[in-house]
Amino acid sequence: MANFTKWLGAGLGFTLGGPIGAAIGFAIGSFVDGFSEKDLLLEQGEYQSKTQNNRHVNTQSGDFEMSLLVLASIVIKSDGKIDKRELEFVRAQFLSMYGKERANNAFKLFKGIVKKEISARQVCIQIREHMSHASRLQLLHFLFGIAKADEFVTEKEVEEIRKIAGYLYINQRDFTSIKAMFYDESDNAYKILEITKSATDDQLKSAYRKMVKKYHPDKLQDLGKEHLQGAKEKFQSIQTAYEKIKKERGL
């Protein structure tokens, strides 16, 4: 248990409290007898005292990790079942980002979180108060990856992610752009760049520059190098979409 709480304390900030903290406490309590959310906060007394007068706490790597776990649990349950392939996707993503020991801790916690009924709205309010727009876009990208893990995205999953996007103050254009990164349709390249097929070549170039700025991996540097791979995947989707349209147009 000592190693587990050390892992929790290493990178947690704003997610210690609120609905995310409650979910974490519930999850730990599901596999550690007598452990509660209160115990989790006591473990982090020093953190609490340091941030008492700082309402806006910076997002840390652990905060992003906990936010992923909680939102992933909501999406996975949205179609009324928990698919093994989706669980394996979560495990694989955490292995690639965090390494075996940290990923095992995270997945152990996830299996507890998924048992709890959680309000997506309340969780998203907590996230958006502390997390940058770029980080929230990265969360959305991860959630679509989970939904696609079983090779079939249900309408219920899409609607749950759409609701989450709205709660996170991610607009419809950004939602459609990220969603298009996971589908193979004729006009997806245009959707990814947030333009239509009627866009001029100058509008295409302008849209590309705008998207490169929005999705550049440097915007997630504060979250730690472990979260940059997902950012690079989004960035590559932008590059691929642009090159595809240029080729179609003979530019």
From TrEMBL:
InterPro entries listed in its UniProt record: DjlA_DnaK_co-chaperone (IPR050817), DjlA_N (IPR007791), DnaJ_domain (IPR001623), J_dom_sf (IPR036869), TerB-like (IPR029024)
Cited PROSITE patterns: DNAJ_2
Domain of life the protein comes from: Bacteria
SMART domains, sorted: DnaJ
Listed Pfam families: DnaJ (PF00226), TerB (PF05099)
Domain J: start-end pairs: 188-250
Name the record gives this protein: TerB family tellurite resistance protein
